[in-house]
Amino acid sequence: MIIAPERSRRPLGLASTKPHSRHDVERDDCPFCEGREDQSPPEVLAYREPGSATNGPGWSLRVVPNKYPAVGDYEFATTGKDLFFQSLPAFGRHEVVVECPFHEANPAQFSLARIASIFRAYRDRMLDLAADPWVAYVSAFKNVGAEAGASLAHSHSQLIALPLVPEAVQEDWDNAQRYDSEHGHCVYCAMLERELREGVRIVLESPGFVVLAPYASRFAYELWVLPRTHESCFESLTDEAALDLATLLKPLLGKLDAVLSAPAYNWYVRTGPLRSGRPPGFHWHLQLFPRTTRVAGFEWATGCFINAVPPERAASELRSARIEAAMSLAVDHG
Amino acid sequence: MIIAPERSRRPLGLASTKPHSRHDVERDDCPFCEGREDQSPPEVLAYREPGSATNGPGWSLRVVPNKYPAVGDYEFATTGKDLFFQSLPAFGRHEVVVECPFHEANPAQFSLARIASIFRAYRDRMLDLAADPWVAYVSAFKNVGAEAGASLAHSHSQLIALPLVPEAVQEDWDNAQRYDSEHGHCVYCAMLERELREGVRIVLESPGFVVLAPYASRFAYELWVLPRTHESCFESLTDEAALDLATLLKPLLGKLDAVLSAPAYNWYVRTGPLRSGRPPGFHWHLQLFPRTTRVAGFEWATGCFINAVPPERAASELRSARIEAAMSLAVDHG
Asked: Strands A2-3, A156-162: parallel, antiparallel or unpaired by DSSP?
């Protein structure tokens, strides 16, 4: 990873990045809005008004299978077991978390209770999917804005359940376990203690969580949200912790919108494999990064990222950012 | 890597990807056009008319230091040697290959000689940079279109010289050496032989090179261009081989433009470390991929890519694509 502040001055640098329109799909055609439940496959989870009918209106949050799944029940043509050409059927589950019944693209506008419900839904689905013995890992992630890969504006997250632990997760896990066996404690706990002492990369804190711009960030304004106490796996999240996380995330998203003019961004939960209990070393956290620049040839060529904004500067800008009055006063229309 | 053809039908799938405008920078302001040599740092290489003055007009191709370098001479603030916070000064060289004196954004419009000169320039600069003992690796890459990270439309490539072998290259190299020590031959040579026998993923062939859509491609329409004979390092490229490569690349780029409506794309040379001689196993090649979809939360969360176009389909479409008449008749305005 290369930190290159000089780069932010180039013609297509950060300054000239156009804010992403988050309203590119018409409200009238949105399949996620309340009343159009028939446009999605039947729900697998919903937080509903007591007495409201399954797959009808009256919900606050709803999880449905993805209509265009990346993984599924189907078997894909394979060339068999082979030294060069190895494949597995793309088994899995691909679900969508529709986060609100009304047409809102910006989760910074949500109430704290609604933001908390997103994380409760991740947890509830992970626990349910974990009952299927073939499920080894569930990835929970969110794309905000077309630049970040979202195909619909209506605020939503996605869950993908996989029959194997993905490469990037396994690598993090192996590294964390190696550190733990050498030092006798969690590398994330140690890093967090050190970051809190130094302070320069800390953005926000709540009773249970800390937001920081990680040292040697890959992306400009990359942010990590870590639980203060050691928790290996996300699915152990309590309702209280989900609300605490929301209390931190709402102002964080407001600050990001203020500093970067409502950028497109991604977040995802980095957590240990399901049913791994509390493996030594691993410490779940949320990784979030705005899409301020495009990953280009050099990054793909080398695996080395060029970041024009040192994390110390990103943290300082976000700490001092004032959330727009309209945003802080916003009430959830739900 | 997940091959998910179903995904190409979703709202923001391939079909609705807008062709990228390659002319978003005005010709009148372009710092790369002939006559504006004073807008770049002094040239480090130029193919020029005999008798024309250095840093003046009369060139056909020109390499200059990047005005906004990702790496350079300067020392970056470090936090010292530390278990958590390790850093190196961002030493290196960052150069730009200006591929033509006239304002052309699309390299498919270039003459064969001009396309060949791009690869001769990569080679000449690698050999020159290799004389500096601190240079361990030179990455040569090209971003076409803003979606692919290009900040200027005028056709250009970039070279970044690094004091270490980047992670992605080292990993490929380690894997290739491991295969070679187990099987006694190069994994790329074996893969190429197998692909030529099966044929389904082959796109184009020339006397010296083969273009194929690699098995389990990460990206839709990802393409690899491999030399038929075993060559570890790109810098051994002869002038004849550069011209042969151009003979293959020009129709390939024309076909890509025809199938994907002039997409943004990246290419880069994957080659062994400098001065590594002919290490067993490694086999340089060009990797090229159009930016048809955006890398989203799931890919960053897991390191696993979702590709909606099986490589067999991509190869078949490209094989049968007819290059537009305007394109095949184009003569280089240089």
From this structure: unpaired
The domain locations on chain A are 2-14+22-321
Is A67 in contact with B148 (Cβ distance < 8 A)? no
Other CB atoms within 10 Å distance of the CB of residue B231: 22
Q: By C-alpha distance, which of A152, A157, A148 is closest to A125?
A: A157
Chain B residue numbers touching A294 (CB-CB < 8 A): 146-149
| Domain B2-329, second-level architecture | 2-Layer Sandwich (3.30)
User: Could you tell me which CATH class the domain A2-14+22-321 is placed in?
Assistant: alpha beta
Question: Beta A209-212 vs A223-227: how paired, if at all?
Answer: antiparallel
Collapsing DSSP to helix, strand or coil, B221 comes out as coil
Higher pLDDT, A201 or A2: A201
B288 φ, ψ to 5°?
-135, 130
Query: What is the rounded distance in angstroms from the CA atom of residue B85 to the CA atom of residue B79?
Result: 7
Chunked into runs of 10 residues, chain B (334 residues) has average pLDDT values of: 55 40 63 95 97 97 89 54 71 93 96 98 96 92 92 94 90 90 93 95 97 92 96 94 98 96 95 76 92 85 88 95 66 54
Active site residue B183: no
Interface contact B3-A90, CB threshold 8 A: yes
pTM for the structure as a whole: 0.85
Of A289, A321, A106, A293, nearest to A212 by C-alpha is A289
Q: Which residues of A fall within a CB distance of 8 Å from B151?
A: 10-13
pLDDT at position B102 is 96
Query: Given a cut of 80, is residue A226 above it in pLDDT?
Result: yes
Cβ–Cβ gap B11/A269 under 8 Å:
no
